[in-house]
Amino acid sequence: MNGFGAAVVITGCGSATPRQFLSNEELSQIVETSDEWIKSRTGIGKRHLADQSVSLSQLAAQAAIKALEMAQVSPSEIDLILLATSTPDDLFGSAAQVQSRIGANRAIAFDLTAACSGFLVALVTATQFIRTGTYRNVLVIGADVLSRWVDWNDRATCVLFGDGAGAVLCQANDTKDNILGFELHSDGSQNSSLNLAYQGEELPLKEGVRVQKGTYKPLTMNGREVYRFAVAKVPEVIEKALYRANLTTSDIDWLVLHQANQRIMDAVSDRLKLPPEKVISNLSEYGNTSAASIPLALDEAVRSGKVKKGDIIASSGFGAGLTWGGIIFRWGD
User: Which of 116, 158, 195, 282 is catalytic?
Assistant: First the structure.
């Protein structure tokens, strides 16, 4: 194990969102909708949106710095940065830009793409690097700026998404392991239910030789299918993660789900027989921030004093791919 501890604790969290926002009432001036229509179907009240001056890597770096400050760890001590995002500033990846922005000059940094499940997949990945003894300090960031890729004339999708970033610091510990259990899944046969697809335009270079000039279509979603998928799969995957952790739903202090739709979160908590007061939700303020939603909700709950050291948290990410997963962890070192 190269002298490294194989146990994992989460010692800090942070988040960042753009200052500007768009309320439901303001959105109704852009597309045919209303505050009542949006709230009754989603629970969303407004969404924070990045303007031209705000980059994905800026938001990610701001969240990362706050997580490091909470953990009292210097950027120079970070070994690995995992950036979960579907909307990088650079198609080749933005994690290295984050590494430079925060001064983590010893860290290897790379992007991980699993859409709204991205943060959870990145957290599990970080756990493996630490448990094998490869690294001691891993920064996990979930960040997305989906406002870049939303069709603002499509009320089925534009009402849902906001921009933001959240981060946690995972550290090796010689005695305790606070990542208690997890379960991950994918089903590519349902990819068409939610995607942001590549779109190529044919470009002839010479006779008989053609390439594609690339771009992307706006985000599309079959809301009914995604709802059905999430309500069926999320409780199941959390129960599997609990089984791996040798725990039951009665051990859960907090449920922190991907903030996609309040009706989904209500249905999942009902299925798990968890009371509403155990469900962390900030969907009304931020909308669906994709890979940022879980760490953003967690950070607010920790900083408000709601989530306390030692609390057991059940979390699930789900979305495009389709991908979904569950993880059980204890907060704090």
Answer: 116
Residue 5: its pLDDT value, please? 52
For the chain, the farthest-separated pair of C-alpha atoms sits apart, in whole angstroms, at 68
pTM (2 d.p.)? 0.95
Dihedral pair phi/psi, residue 319, rounded to 5°: 165, -150
> Please, which pLDDT band fits residue 333 given cuts at 50, 70 and 90?
confident
How far is 50 from 162, CA to CA, in rounded Å? 9
> Which string of DSSP letters, residue by residue, matches 153-204?
T-HHHHTTB-EEEEEEEEEEESS---EEEEEEEE-GGGGGGEE--EEEEEEE
Q: Residue 144 and residue 119: Cα distance in Å, rounded?
A: 11
Distance CA 13, CA 123 (A): 12
Average pLDDT over every residue of 44-59: 97
CA atoms within 13 A on the CB side of 90: 12
CA angle 270, 276, 277 (to 5 degrees): 150
Reply yes or no on whether 222 is catalytic. no
CA angle in degrees (0–180, nearest 5) for 17-23-24? 135
Say yes or no to pLDDT of 260 above 50: yes
Residue range 268-315, pLDDT digits in tens: 999 999 999 999 999 999 999 999 999 999 999 999 999 999 999 999
* Residue 48 is among the residues annotated as catalytic for this protein: no
49 CB-near residues (< 8 Å, 6+ apart): 18, 20, 21, 22, 147, 162, 163
Other Cβ atoms less than 10 A from the Cβ of 30: the count is 12
